[in-house]
Amino acid sequence: MLRHPCPCPCPCPCPCPKKATGEADGRLGGMDLDHERLDVYHLALDFLVLASEIIEGLPRGRSHLSDQFSRASLSIVLNLAEGAGKHSKPDKRRYYVTARGSATESAALLDVCCRLKLLEESGHRTGKAMIVRIVSMLIKLAQSCED
């Protein structure tokens, strides 16, 4: 599935001659790390950006929400990357399940911010749609690691 339209740099399989060497996207030798091949990883990065924008818009005095939201959204990305790099299926599954927990925590934080009128309904809807997709993909990844 194409994530970005060409022209380079992008992770799509375009005919750019620089793709073969990785010059187009700054990677060495055109090699992907395991987590970079996962669509859910890129979606989690997109959610991290959205969460950061929401955090930046929170009023002073809400640092507890900012800190928790920042940690939860970052944890999705980091646990996905770490899980993808593991060799054993049980290890992979554990990290994917942990990432899923961080995603559902992020969903709850979106709800809290919306209920406290710190986030507009459109931002809440966008964030929740992303989280629903992330959780669904993480469930499938975790299930693929079951014996």
Report on this structure:
- Helix 1 (39-57) runs antiparallel to helix 2 (63-84) and helix 1 runs antiparallel to helix 4.
- The chain is 63% helix and 0% strand.
- Residues 1-7 and 16-24 have low confidence and may be disordered.
- The protein is mainly alpha-helical.
- It folds into 2 domains: 1-31, no CATH class; 34-144, 23S rRNA-intervening sequence (de novo design (two linked rop proteins), Up-down Bundle), CATH 1.20.1440.60.
- It has 4 helices and no strands.
Major sheet, described briefly?
A: none
The first-to-last residue Cα distance is 27 Å
Under CATH at level 1, the class of the largest domain stands as: Mainly Alpha
Based on Cα principal axes, name the global outline: elongated
Strand tally: 0
CATH homology group of the largest domain: 23S rRNA-intervening sequence
Under the CATH scheme, the architecture of the largest domain is Up-down Bundle
Task: Give the SSE layout.
Blueprint: H1 39-57, H2 63-84, H3 89-115, H4 121-144
Helix pairs in contact: 1-2, 1-4, 2-3, 3-4
Short description:
63% of the residues lie in helices and 0% in strands.
Q: What key phrases describe this protein's structure?
A:
2 domains, de novo design (two linked rop proteins), mainly alpha, 63% helix, 147 residues, disordered N terminus
